[in-house]
TrEMBL record:
Its main location: cytoplasm. The gene is cysH. It comes from Rhizobium anhuiense. It comes from the Bacteria. Gene3D superfamilies: HUPs. Belongs to the PAPS reductase family. CysH subfamily. This is Adenosine 5'-phosphosulfate reductase. Residues 42-216 form the Phosphoadenosine phosphosulphate reductase domain.
Length: 252
């Protein structure tokens, strides 16, 4: 990867480590400002969840040169779709929508059935690949830095999330500026700054994805327990943040 800043000169893994150490000492606004000033295209992908809304609020409030994108999978909750428009209006920003290709959806339905993701892990991963991973690849075309809303407290699988890491599959730096924020800090920021959030959060949905694949959680369950609830693997992910899944889509 071409160096985009003096801090990023020694190879991708060293670059990520140096950036990780520097981000650790900054607040959220400082973290976003730092990476947005490196040069090159910086993309933030939002699911419109509460943590992502915090990042969008900072980007919009400080007018940072960061592209905001969302994966409009075709199966999102109506509340999520409405929040896209509300957020654009409140912060006077454009949220770029990336949708799956009709040919990919048709091919998936022919092989597995439209809701075949309930039948096997293979089918569910294939659906996520069509509706999320392939649109993500388009969203990140030409990007030097990818910003996400990953937090360590979201699940055991994300407990070691760094502030910055090198995504070898996509050949870019991945920045997680909320890695050390807990849910209470997120809620406090939202309340103090009037950030619009998905009303589903108040109905027991701390993590919101596609409507057929998301349920409210029960008391005491982890934040992401409502995602793909019919599967038994406690570390289940859609593949956006799992290198092996990204590599499989890239190979296609």
């Amino acid at each position: 990867m071409t160096a985009i800043n003096p801090i990023l000169e020694e190879g991708p893994i060293a670059e990520a480590k140096a950036l990780n150490d520097r981000l650790a000492g900054l607040d959220l606004a400082g973290r976003l400002s730092l990476v947005s000033g490196f040069g090159g295209r910086v993309v933030f992908t939002t699911s419109l969840g509460i943590e992502d809304q915090v990042i969008t609020a900072e980007i919009g409030t400080h007018r940072l040169p960061i592209d905001v994108a969302t994966l409009q999978t075709g199966r999102l909750f109506p509340e999520t779709l409405a929040l896209i428009d509300e957020t654009e209006n409140q912060y006077d920003i454009r949220i770029h929508r990336f949708e799956p290709e009709k040919a990919d959806i048709d091919a998936y339905a022919a092989q597995y059935g439209l809701n075949g993701f309930y039948e096997s892990v293979e089918a569910r991963h294939a659906c996520c690949g069509v509706r999320k991973l392939k649109p993500l690849a388009r969203a990140l075309e030409g990007a030097a830095i990818w910003i996400t809303g990953l937090r360590r407290g979201q699940s055991a699988n994300r407990a070691e999330t760094p502030f910055a890491e090198y995504d070898a599959e996509r050949h870019l730096l991945k920045v997680n500026p909320l890695a050390d924020w807990d849910l209470e800090a997120i809620k406090a920021f939202v309340s103090a700054n009037g950030v619009p959030v998905n009303p589903l959060h108040q109905r027991g949905y701390p993590s919101i994805g596609c409507e057929p694949c998301t349920r409210a959680i029960k008391p005491g369950e982890p934040e992401r327990a409502g995602r793909w609830w019919w599967e038994q693997d406690e570390t289940r992910e859609c593949g956006l943040h799992v290198a092996e899944e990204a590599a499989a889509i890239a190979a296609q």
